[in-house]
Specification:
The chain is of the alpha/beta class. Helix content is 33%, strand content 17%. It has helices at residues 4-15, 17-30, 34-50, 59-62, 103-113, 143-160, 176-183, 194-198, 230-237, 280-283; strands at 88-91, 118-121, 166-169, 204-207, 209-212, 215-218, 241-243, 250-256, 262-268, 291-296, 301-306. Helix 6 links the parallel strand 2 and strand 3. The protein is globular. Bound molecules: fe (ii) ion.
Length: 308
């Protein structure tokens, strides 16, 4: 069996070294398997040196998040780089092509009504249901047909969200291709860039995580269970955090960090079609909550908007 750190190295190779560095650094902050990520980081540093690339990729990003704003006070003012006029719309897990048919319209209507200025998709953009360690379901479309359907659905999203800059956070389903390839022994250099597979428009970015207005947006693996205390997630990330991954939960919970600053955890819900066979595994135990998130006031406020 290939170790997690080795898979991480393959995954990171597929997505590029700068993102690898950010991803590993984020993983180390989350804790839990820090020894693995430390070794992955050491491997990354060695390879970066071999390729003549800077390490760490971005010194600012390598600093602990808690040290970024030493003057933050309990009134939780916006961080210096925050923009009060910025409103971030958070799209939940879509799992194309097994998304709810009304979800895109709901997103566009909500984002326009709320004055959204930029968009973060919280991960699991595509489902990749036939590409996983759980095997092939013969009653689902083939992997090739699923990709074709997901591409067709993606193009609708690209057209509908053309007014906004969009960043897609890499979810565990998005990572299935790289992880499956790694298990089969394929090096990252033999793989297509996921942006190319998704045919992402130039205005769309793909990243393991993203920070806007001192808020961390990530998919949610390793963040703690859906009903764990929001303070735990805030502690692990070092600030307010927006996440997806848990389809059965939507909402925003506020807590104070160790300095007394008001922080929040947002669960962005999802946009899946729960009647799809691909979601058989979760329908009974965890029926989905459809909706999206809206982050405003310089990152100090998060709202969950349910799709009713
Ligand atoms: Fe998901």
């Amino acid at each position: 069996m290939i170790s997690p750190r080795y898979s991480a190295a393959r995954f990171a190779t597929a997505y590029g070294w700068p993102e690898y560095g950010r991803w590993v650094e984020a993983a180390r902050r989350w804790g839990g398997t820090s020894h693995c990520w430390s070794r992955a980081a050491a491997r990354a540093a060695a390879r970066a040196a071999a390729y003549g690339r800077p390490w760490p990729p971005e010194p600012d990003d390598a600093r602990p998040l808690l040290d970024r704003d030493p003057d933050v006070n309990p009134e939780s003012p916006p961080s210096p780089e925050s923009d009060p006029a910025r409103v971030v719309g958070v799209v939940g897990d879509t799992h194309l092509p097994y998304h709810h048919p009304d979800y895109l319209g709901f997103i566009v209507d909500t984002f326009r009504a709320r004055g959204v200025t930029e968009v973060v998709h919280i991960g699991d953009w595509w489902d990749w249901g036939q590409v996983s360690r759980y095997g092939v379901d013969p009653d689902l479309p083939s992997a090739a047909d699923e990709i074709e359907a997901a591409l067709a659905a993606s193009r609708e999203w690209y057209a509908a969200l053309a007014a906004w800059p969009v960043t897609v956070v890499v979810g565990n389903h998005d990572a299935r291709v790289a992880r499956t390839a790694a298990r089969a022994g394929l090096p990252g250099t033999a793989m297509r860039d996921l942006r190319e597979v998704y045919s992402l428009p130039a205005s769309w970015a793909l990243a393991p995580r993203v920070e806007v207005d001192d808020v961390v947006y990530l998919h949610g693996e390793g963040l703690g269970g859906p009903r764990s205390a929001p303070a735990l997630a805030i502690e692990r990330v070092g600030g307010s955090v927006a996440a997806g991954h848990w389809h059965a939960l939507g909402g925003a919970w506020y807590s104070r960090d160790r300095r007394g600053a008001l922080r929040w955890r947002l669960a962005a819900g999802c946009g899946i079609d729960s009647s799809a066979r691909a979601y058989d595994y979760g329908r009974a135990a965890a029926p989905p909550v459809l909706g999206c998130g809206v982050v405003s006031e310089g990152g100090r406020r998060a709202d969950f908007v349910p799709m009713l």
